[in-house]
Hints:
It contains 14 helices and 14 strands. By secondary structure, the protein is α/β, with parallel strands linked by helices. A seven-stranded mixed β-sheet has the order 2-8-7-6-5-3-4, sandwiched between helices. Strands 9-14-13 form a three-stranded antiparallel β-sheet. Strands 1-12 form a two-stranded parallel ribbon. α8 links the parallel β5 and β6 (204-208). It is globular, with a radius of gyration of 21 Å.
Amino acid sequence: MNISERISQISDSPTLAMGAKAREMKQAGLDVISMSIGEPDFPTPAHVKQAVKDAVDADMSHYGAIPGIIGLRRAAAKYMSSFVEQSGAEDTFAAEDIIVSVGAKQALCNAIETIVGDGDEVILPTPCWGSYAEMVKLAGGVPVIVHTTYDNDFLLTPAALEAAITPRTRLLVICSPNNPTGSVYSAEDIRTLAEILLRRPNVAVLADEIYNQICYSGTCATWASQTALLDRLVVVNGVSKVFAMTGYRIGWLACKNKEFIRACTRMQGQQITCATMVAQYAAQQALEGDLTCVREMTEAFRRRRELIVRLAKDIPGWKVREPKGTFYLFPDVTALFGKYAPADSNYTKKHNSSLINSADELCEYLLLDSLVVCVSGSAFGEPSCMRLSYACSQQQITEGLQRIHAAILRLK
Ligand code: PLP
């Protein structure tokens, strides 16, 4: 069968691949510690689970409206508006500005497909989540990678943004708090980037704020505070990360531009009809219910962050920045390139060579010889770093980091 040129160009998700590898090794009986996947280990809050049961009993088993059930759209608009209000801006979201989709991933994909055409350029500051570039390629667009640096906390500078814009630029995709770096753009950072964009009316902004509640300094700034940009701004959020509901697959986008909402709804109608009804109802209850569970999970992530940063700072050859949001640590490991794994290591036996010269190779060594699963920074466009997810227990973090530490001490 023919596989289209467009799909042939798309890569597999390296984080999902590492997650699958960890599952496979666990099933084979190995004592694996998985620090690869961006998925909270907490159970979904009890009142949300109850909501699913209620929705099943209420026969929410039929097709629904394309952009989502009205209750969830209202709840999502209120939720997103609360972040706008916290930022001091006044232009908040209404239900009609929201399209609910199958996870934030589909909301991002929808937005990119709606805005980007063949040959259009999309600016992606890296390190960033690997799916953005693949989504842009799926839409026929051209990812324009703009590297950010460790020394600037991996934040896009106004000068770098300005330099990347060409007459073909249609979109900037920006994620804060950022996966994989944990960096967070301040209100001032966002304002200065927005100033550049105000002079470039053909460039829209897709702000991925899926981790916005997992922000260790308190409130996280939102792009939706940029009132003058609202007509070409799409903000994405969802319940996966913050409410521990990854498997429910509910996310949404918010946009004040009615033409965009109409076009995007049309496309979603042809693709999926609507997101799963019972899951939408559960997501509505999550947003409308008591948010203490979210605060508790974020506090647990904060304790885990302190632990992982403390342990990681002791590891030789690692340069460690404290993440300001998310549940990812992204150490620079270049000082270890050029070292050799022990001759009797599984890594050496597999490769017939002991040399470790990249983050990919380091991650493979740690996987084979300490059974800790991490993801190489190359999956995010930054091959000098690696990503560890600390959405796992303190005990797993301690054990995982001890194993990594011991394995790195064995390098020569
Ligand atoms: N955006 C970022 C930055 C992510 O890291 C992820 C998941 O890893 C998503 C979006 C997708 O979220 P969802 O699971 O709701 O599709």
